[in-house]
Design brief:
Chains A, B: This is TetR family transcriptional regulator. 2 copies of one chain form a homodimer. Chain A is mostly helical. Helices cover 71% and strands 0% of the residues of chain A.
Chain lengths: 209, 209
């Protein structure tokens, strides 16, 4: 008797990512709290055991999707910094891409994250994850500011974290406003002007010449 | 036989407001989508008929609470404008009160409105209310800016609505960040600095001397 063929690590990872992609789509369509494991099993076309082998809950899937996004975000920020001539240009390039993304139609994973985090205020078991994720977001955004502090281009008059929180507020607010208002009227939200407004604040708070 | 005593209009209005106060508390405690009419009947201490005489759904109650808040907000803004020496002072006084409110502990009705609006992206029947409510918020915030345009103090370089959307983003973002992060650490959110940042933007966009 020959042994059963070994399922390669690579195959397993590919399958895991495919299940996450499916879960992501179902979460976007139904909302996180409304999605059950059964929904994802059905959408995946796999057996129940085939999914549970990789994930035991929707919460686990949500967190891995978010972690994957955060990692992608970090690499994206680093890439922009690497490709920009100055630290201020990196911020402008970053904001230009945010602006382009916001004007694209369709609901993305952002709304799912909103739901999860808004509801987390009532669900204690999500607290430590929420905090960890907050730290990650702050650290990633901080890269843009620290970059300019290193080169001497930025001389912030507020703590880096305060500036990052402000950027996150405008970012998240634009996302939420776009999702709720722009489906009725094109750019009811004034994406361009708000990004411009964020730059007015940043130039002043970072003391960019 | 004497006729049944007439329930006065005043009594009815008082009872209606009491039921709304109860509903507000239950929504804050359980979240809007998790609250049933039965929950509110039980919390009110009234009979089922006693509540249904005034309201037929939690949605109706939510909307009346929000409308009542919006009316209160409009009067509050007008009072601040009336009591402030200049249009810029009115904005500063408004923001000082926002700041004080954000540093108060406890979850308010804000989080319930967040839940309702975030979820509205999936619930078509909420769309027209969402839009109407958005218009009201924009109109009320606009009062602060138009006030300074009338006196010649403000010469905005962006459309009033774009400026209002930016203010709303920082306002809502501060509320959400405070609700999710400040319960772990006092002012992790940098409320003071963010309000200061909003002023940096406003001074520039309104061309305040």
């Amino acid at each position: 008797m020959s042994p059963l063929p070994k399922v390669s690590q690579e195959y397993k990872e590919k399958r895991r990512q495919e299940i996450l992609d499916t879960a992501r789509k179902v979460f976007i369509q139904k909302g996180f709290d409304q999605t059950t494991m059964t929904d994802i099993v059905e959408a995946s076309g796999l057996s129940r055991g085939g999914v549970y082998q990789y994930f035991s809950s929707t919460d686990e899937m949500f967190r891995q999707i978010t972690d994957r996004n955060d990692e992608g975000f970090e690499n994206w920020i680093k890439k922009i910094i690497g490709e920009s001539k100055t630290a201020w240009a990196a911020i402008e390039n970053y904001l230009a891409e945010v602006e382009a993304g916001l004007l694209e139609p369709g609901v993305g994973f952002g709304i799912v994250q909103f739901e999860y985090f808004v509801f987390s205020t009532r669900k204690e078991e999500r607290s430590s994850y929420l905090l960890k994720r907050g730290e990650t977001a702050i650290r990633n955004f901080s890269l843009l500011i620290e970059n300019g502090m290193k080169t001497g281009e930025f001389k912030p008059i507020q703590p880096t974290e305060a500036i990052v929180m402000f950027i996150i507020n405008i970012n998240d607010g634009l996302l939420l406003q776009s999702l709720t208002l722009n489906k009725y009227e094109h750019d009811r939200v004034y994406v361009k002007e708000q990004i411009q407004g964020l730059k007015m604040y940043l130039k002043q708070v970072l003391q960019v010449e």
